[in-house]
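One record is given unchanged without comment:
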Amino acid sequence: MEIVLSDSKSELGEKAAITGAGLIRKAILTNGAANIIVATGASQFEMLNELIKQEVDWSKVTAFHLDEYIGIPEKHPASFRKYLKERFTNKISLKEFHYVDGETDPGAECRRLGEVISKYPIDVAFVGIGENSHLAFNDPPADFETEEPFIVVSLNEKCRRQQWGEGWFDSLDSVPDQAISMSVKQIMKSKAIICSVPDVRKAEAVQKSLKGKVTPLVPASVLQQHNLVWIYLDKDSASLLT
């Protein structure tokens, strides 16, 4: 695990994007194509803004979406499909993007996505860490054992409060209780992981995830067990590290 510190969120995003783009180019050079996972949320704003500026032959890249709320229409301000189209997929020309559809039968959608991603070894996963240390929407205690690539998860109150606090919803009660999420094991199958985590509100989660023991109670702590992961922090998110 390599921890990279930055003085600002913009610097963090640029550094993460440069590393990620380099890994994508390497995969294309080696295999003729690259497969990636893309996260959403406020922590990814700067990284995605910089990633689309990088020299990458996006026509050779297949991408997967980490998670989506169940029951949220795509036009909703909190929809991650909407987020990705506005900030990523509509700005480049990907070979293919596999969205998570939270408006259909969740079990069937998990099975559909699982069948698709099983055909695409992931070269780079772009992820973040939640205020409750979640990885994707795998809230504590996370399922570290399931082999299913996508699962239905329940969102705990701290996770729901984060989504409300970031301004995606008008009230806590309007934040959904469930989502479809890529599983921990599926994320960990990625050859490389780029984890972008700005803001002081993430400092405690960062400290527990990077310096504490690996446990389902701190889902992102599992990143300690990956052999090729970069953690990008700003001064605020790194403030509790020694």
User: Anything to note?
Assistant: Residues 18 and 124 are 13 Å apart (CA to CA). The chain has a mean pLDDT of 96.
